[in-house]
Amino acid sequence: MIIVSGQWLRPQDTANWQIEEGLHPLLNEMIASPIQFDYNSVAELIFELNIRKNIVASARALHQSGAKFATFVKTYGNKAFWRVSPEGALELKYKMPPSKAIRDIFENGTFYAFECATAIVVIYYMAVLKTIGDDRFDLNFQRITLYDWHYEKLPIYTEAGRDFVIGDCLYFNNPDFNPQKAQWRGENVILLEKDLYFAHGLGILSGEKIIEKLNSFRKKDAVQSAYLLAQATRLDIPSLYRMMH
Fold it and tell me: What is the secondary structure of the chain as a DSSP string?
């Protein structure tokens, strides 16, 4: 369900919109969704469509980049752009263009390793960069620290529910994880299409396959299977739009 300036948007209302052809399926999915998306203008809505398209593209690109999964203590990055803190955070070096540093993760992924929450934030940054361009990105994100769910100025929220839209970040919980492999207590993923997810460290898989992988990292005599949590994490698009304009 989409509300623009207080008005409910119907499928027929968008029939003559001059937007990129590839955005129409996502637009129709959001219109048909029981989730309520509120915007102050059509421009905000189109901004979200582009962000979501770029989240999916960035997730696929990170999968292809060669960037590895690693625990915080084993995190590493390209030293030309990033320093690694004792806690395992990647900190943008002084006066380094943020846009170039984020792009480098995708262009030289073999120089990087980080865990799955960090991967989601990296994907979000790249999606925003692709949407707004280098100049505005560099102006708005001059200081970046890549560490867990550390995301500086990015407006991110998590909402309960079992209805999801392409580009959402979801979480597979693994309550009976092996304490000696605590990094597999769960997995943050990006929904790429129906029942297809990017999971950093596992790959691009169905929900069933992700659960199967997580179950292989459970403690001895585990009784509870991994499962998809009934929640979604999203960028707050109206807030982000106001920041960028």
Answer: -EEETTEE--GGGGTT----GGGHHHHHHHHHSSS-EEESSHHHHHHHHHHHHHHHHHHHHHHHHTPEE--GGG-B--TTTEEE-TTS-EEEPTT--HHHHHHHHHHSGGG-EE-HHHHHHHHHHHHHHHHH-HHHHHHH-SS-EEBTTB-TT--EEEEE-S---TT-EEEEE-TTB-GGGGGGSEEEEEEEETTEEEETTTEEE-HHHHHHHHHTTBPTT--S--EE-SEEEEE-HHHHHHHH-
pLDDT tens-digit series, residues 208-244: 999 999 999 999 999 999 999 999 999 999 999 988 8
Q: What is the CA radius of gyration of the chain?
A: 18
Is the distance from CB of 229 to CB of 162 less than 8 angstroms? no
The pair of structure tokens assigned to 38 is 């509120």
Tell me, what's the pLDDT at 115? 94
Distance CA 9, CA 189 (A): 29
For residue 216, which of 206, 205, 202, 197 has the smallest C-alpha distance?
A: 202
Predicted structure pTM score = 0.95
Lowest mean pLDDT among 42-46, 65-69, 150-154: 150-154
CA distances (Å), origin 212, targets 194, 198, 218: 18, 15, 10
Mean per-residue pLDDT for 129-142? 95
